[in-house]
């Protein structure tokens, strides 16, 4: 007999990942039928018109095909592009076609460590850096390390990015939710963390780690140094490892806000007792190179024998893809002022980040102008997570599906991220081009009025 | 307190992957200290001097950086390279920087289906094809689907490629070993399969699937059509899914042997009751593009609702890397006779496969000339798995470590793959250049004589 759904492991069946869930499946169906869809469900910048950086693609082309240099006129590529591609060729030893070390190319791990040192004024150990197929795979590897069974709890924010809930379900651990305070710009309090922890312990759960997403996905909140310190104090008090998802570290828009890494605050506190895993990615920031699947995790205060287990885990599928490793290298080792590629790089970077900041404002103000929609400031990341007031009897899932059917705008319901019971939300990216995003906000406002009127009239 | 080894999940700690185990770690140590190491532990062709195909790298370079065409003189790239890169640009919609569908680019899945149709004369459904970061990840996804708990058994060959034992351990399933018959060129018999199955059932295990690696890793054996049919009959009789690891399908050297896919034989049998997962990769064959992590799984007789679970599982980490997807496209859609790139492609392909066939013979004959070493024919794949006669009191692990220390040759002990108790083996690739591989075989022969003499003398 062929496989049946009943045969499939319940771990997989209980996994949910709303960012590519039923609403998105329906959007693809409509698109195949000829409808124009605006995909705001996922932070996928280049699918919404963002251009790749010339610096990244020039080096990639040469790294893939070094013989090209012999076939093109001198000056076709800027000198620093040529030098960087040659450096990659020399340091990788065998180019991009061979398996790398399980942790990734050593020279790229050194560049990641140097990037962290320069960003935070810290010492970073290249041997504690693991290059992965996007940050998602790094998160999954660390959670695999930490979860032994259903009694192992991982504290995750509510709302959260569903990679966490999905992966915890897959490894049969227990998600321990802690609520972010929407009224306070999605900040969290030590009291909330303590309550979540105590409730889990009372249920017989052993909390192992806490996940923090900063800048926040889906919330768009940016933590200040005091917030970060509070998390570390809490982790310290309860013997928790910390997973710091910092993939949006370049995406900070709110005046006065700035990204502060967990590594930096941990180093200032001087605690060697808190194990920290920090994640970064090539998919967000100003590169938006999602398809290349580049990312890393840096381990701090993780003993060598535990790191050896992580290395072994990575070795089973051999290594992260080399093109993604190279894109990561180009993220952490960009052109410097005075380099031939610097001006174009800086211009293209600004051309991504500056409109993003404006779009954050457009979405925030536009949605807040709609009666029944309340949107906290989009201080960072790539999303707004507005609260929507709905008549009784309908869910945010119903709402988002109707939004899709009526307007072609594809967003994800708050239920997919978790939210305080009795509240409804949706997540939309701020990525479409400025004129598109204005249109999205306008259509959402009109839709909201229509939908709530209809629902109230019982139609 | 920082994480301790005792805190780490036992699933991870019990996982073993010898291909990158302690012998390889020691080799890296020696290399850092200045020793020259010949890495025969892993099928990593481009690390041993194999050149990437021009066809692959030219298209990749243009796909990464399409603007290049405007910057180089006409004729820099062959017309079919330009056309293929443009086709990739058009069909991918957003180039290589955006997330693709969770299953991978649709146009590449269509090309994979066409490749299977052309190879086997079958109908293949692009929606049943999943593109993955190398075949390893595809195998892991399918095993994740099939294993719900420790009572779920997966039949694996002994010897096997340790991806299987490692992944089954990671997902807490039970490996059910069935022995290949070394004396019969590593063929297997229905009786052996039945015995393994019955023994597992007697222990309360529920066998779910059988893994077959063809051509064999580490054995180098190539199954004939009757063998393939026997496996399918066995699977049919016991309601097992079949995992057909066919990543070495282009690597067949023995005169008269040829690769026969499980898909083809299953279609001929006409059974819709056997679920089949067939794996292929860009890492082996004549491409050897290991670093790009390209691969696929094709599902047959897997109902839509089960496939939906696989899609969901893939969606959590979004998609396989796009460069790897493109390399896979170039594998399944190579230049055709008459195309401008055809002649160079054919020449470079032959320059990989022809020496591989000769090296298979060199290794087989050279090792068989050493008293105490017996090597079955290397009919396919990239490895020899010779049996070594050792004096009592030493293991193949001791042997391989001493081989490394004394000769700089890094191979993997048979224990890492599994073997009949009381026998010892090692796995070596046949990949080094011809003069190197002759040297490897010579040094191994001298070492074997030295080692066994010393061991017999009790030193």
3D structure, described in words:
Two copies of one chain form a homodimer. Chain A is α/β, with parallel strands linked by helices and 459 residues long. The first copy, chain A, folds into three domains: 5-50 and 345-456, Aspartate Aminotransferase, domain 1; 54-90, Helix Hairpins (Orthogonal Bundle), CATH 1.10.287; 93-332, Type I PLP-dependent aspartate aminotransferase-like (Major domain) (Aspartate Aminotransferase, domain 2, 3-Layer(aba) Sandwich). Helices cover 44% and strands 13% of the residues of chain A. Chain A has helices at 10-13, 22-32, 54-64, 68-71, 79-92, 106-120, 134-146, 163-170, 190-202, 225-238, 262-269, 304-315, 322-332, 342-368, 396-407, 434-456; strands spanning 38-39, 129-132, 152-158, 174-179, 206-213, 241-245, 276-281, 295-300, 373-374, 383-384, 387-388, 409-410, 412-413, 426-429. In chain A, the strands form four sheets. In chain A, strands 2-8-7-6-5-3-4 form a seven-stranded mixed β-sheet, with helices on both faces. Chain A has a three-stranded antiparallel β-sheet with strand order 10-14-13. A two-stranded parallel sheet of chain A has the order 1-12. In chain A, helix 8 (163-170) links the parallel strand 3 (152-158) and strand 4. At the A-B interface, helix 1, helix 3, helix 7, helix 8 and helix 12 of A face helix 1, helix 3, helix 7, helix 8 and helix 12 of B.
């Amino acid at each position: 007999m062929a496989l049946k759904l009943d045969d499939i492991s319940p771990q997989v069946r209980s996994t949910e990942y709303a960012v590519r869930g039923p609403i998105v499946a329906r959007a693809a169906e409509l698109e195949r039928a000829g409808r124009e869809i605006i995909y705001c469900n996922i932070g996928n910048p280049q699918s919404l018109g963002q251009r790749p950086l010339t610096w990244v693609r020039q080096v990639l082309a040469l790294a893939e095909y070094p013989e090209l240099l012999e076939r093109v006129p001198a000056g076709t590529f800027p000198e620093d592009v040529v030098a960087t591609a040659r450096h990659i060729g020399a340091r990788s030893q065998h180019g991009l076609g061979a398996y790398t070390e399980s942790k990734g190319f050593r020279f790229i791990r050194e560049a990641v460590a140097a990037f962290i040192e320069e960003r935070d004024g810290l010492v970073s150990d290249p041997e504690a850096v693991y290059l992965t197929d996007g940050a998602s795979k790094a998160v999954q590897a660390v959670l695999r390390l930490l979860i032994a069974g259903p009694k192992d709890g991982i504290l995750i924010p509510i709302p959260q990015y569903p990679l966490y809930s999905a992966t915890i379900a897959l490894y049969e651990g227990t998600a321990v939710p802690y609520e972010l305070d929407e009224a306070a710009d999605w900040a969290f309090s030590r009291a909330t963390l303590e309550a979540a922890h105590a409730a889990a312990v009372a249920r017989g759960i052993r909390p192992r780690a806490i996940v923090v997403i900063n800048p926040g996905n889906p919330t768009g909140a940016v933590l200040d140094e005091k917030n970060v310190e509070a998390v570390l104090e809490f982790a310290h008090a309860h013997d928790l490892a910390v997973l710091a998802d910092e993939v949006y570290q370049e995406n900070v828009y709110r005046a006065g806000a700035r990204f502060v890494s967990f590594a930096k605050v941990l180093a200032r506190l001087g605690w060697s007792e808190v194990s920290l895993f920090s994640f970064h990615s090539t998919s967000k920031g100003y590169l938006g190179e999602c398809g290349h699947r580049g990312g890393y995790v840096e381990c701090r205060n993780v003993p060598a024998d535990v790191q050896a287990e992580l290395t072994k885990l990575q070795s089973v599928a051999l290594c992260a893809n080399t093109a993604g490793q190279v894109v990561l290298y180009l993220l952490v080792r960009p052109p410097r002022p005075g380099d031939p590629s610097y001006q174009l790089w800086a211009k293209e970077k600004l051309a991504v980040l500056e409109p993003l900041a404006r779009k954050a404002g457009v979405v925030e103000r536009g949605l807040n102008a709609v009666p029944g929609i309340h949107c906290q400031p989009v201080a960072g990341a790539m999303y707004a997570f507005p609260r929507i007031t709905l008549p009784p009897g309908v869910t945010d899932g119903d709402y988002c599906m109707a939004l899709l059917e009526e307007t072609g705008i594809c967003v994800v319901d708050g239920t997919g991220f978790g939210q305080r019971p009795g509240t409804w939300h949706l997540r939309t990216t701020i990525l479409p081009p400025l004129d598109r995003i204005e249109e999205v906000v306008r259509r959402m406002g009109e839709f909201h009025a229509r939908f709530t009127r209809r629902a109230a009239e019982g139609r």
